[in-house]
Task: inverse folding
């Protein structure tokens, strides 16, 4: 297995699908949201939005799935520093600003830089948020992304058992205004697997004060690459839980899994 570092199926029960995936439309009255959702889900083998294990009653992890335009979808996974009510409020602010600036025609980096300027301006609690934001273009079969100091998502290629870490130059949001973010694009191929996660997964501790770590996570993903998305999330949950048996959960864990399936001959 080579590691490379690079700096749900659709259902007629649309309301149930939308609720199950925790997708929030850009506008409640947007009549085209479900149509775009069906189009995206037909591009993916299956899609499981997240699994959250809050370390406390109120956590700071968040994820989102944003209809950016008619043929593009934004996906976000992020982790706010701190815990409790203050972290939850900062999370809500950050999520709202990211969503507001993602919709329309800004580039991926422009959207997050604009959101960061407002987050930094309103940060009275001296908090910050690490964030991965990508725009999925189903027709072009690409994912364009920025990484603002977040754990790099893990991408497994079908061919060659190659592991790609979706890294890019950037710092956490809220630290300072006018940040620079390196925007990158990666092609998506049939049967590719992408796993996004927060640091609660890799920083889980065992009784010897060892962290679960990125390599154990990659191994779990590789071993479960043939599983359905929800089954893979369960496998990761079981692995982290077994590793940290007897230890308190000290951080939130959020996981998003994307599995790709389409006929490459239909690519535009």
Result:
């Amino acid at each position: 297995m080579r590691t490379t570092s690079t700096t749900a199926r659709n259902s007629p029960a649309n309301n149930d699908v939308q609720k199950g995936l925790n997708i929030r439309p850009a506008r409640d009255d947007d009549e085209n949201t479900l149509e775009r959702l069906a189009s995206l889900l037909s591009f993916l083998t299956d899609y499981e939005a997240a699994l959250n294990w809050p370390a406390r009653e109120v956590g700071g992890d968040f994820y989102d799935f944003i209809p950016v335009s008619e043929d593009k979808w934004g996906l976000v996974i992020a982790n706010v520093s701190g815990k409790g009510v203050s972290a939850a409020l900062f999370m809500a602010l950050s999520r709202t600003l990211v969503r507001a600036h993602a919709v329309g025609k800004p580039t991926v980096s422009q959207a997050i830089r604009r959101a960061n300027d407002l987050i930094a301006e309103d940060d009275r609690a001296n908090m910050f948020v690490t964030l991965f934001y990508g725009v999925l273009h189903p027709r072009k079969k690409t994912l364009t992304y920025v990484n603002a100091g977040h754990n790099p998502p893990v991408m497994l290629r079908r061919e060659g058992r190659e592991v790609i870490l979706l890294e890019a130059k950037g710092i956490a949001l809220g630290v300072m205004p006018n940040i620079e973010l390196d925007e990158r694009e990666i092609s998506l191929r049939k049967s590719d697997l992408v796993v996004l996660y927060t640091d609660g997964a890799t920083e889980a501790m065992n009784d010897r004060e060892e962290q679960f770590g990125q390599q154990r996570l990659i191994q779990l993903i590789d071993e479960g690459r043939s599983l359905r998305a929800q089954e893979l999330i369960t496998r990761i949950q079981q692995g982290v839980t077994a590793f940290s048996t007897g230890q308190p959960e000290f951080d939130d864990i959020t996981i998003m899994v994307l599995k790709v399936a389409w006929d490459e001959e239909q690519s535009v």
The two ends are 30 Å apart (CA to CA). Residues 84-102 form the longest helix (19 residues). The first strand starts at residue 2 and ends at 6.
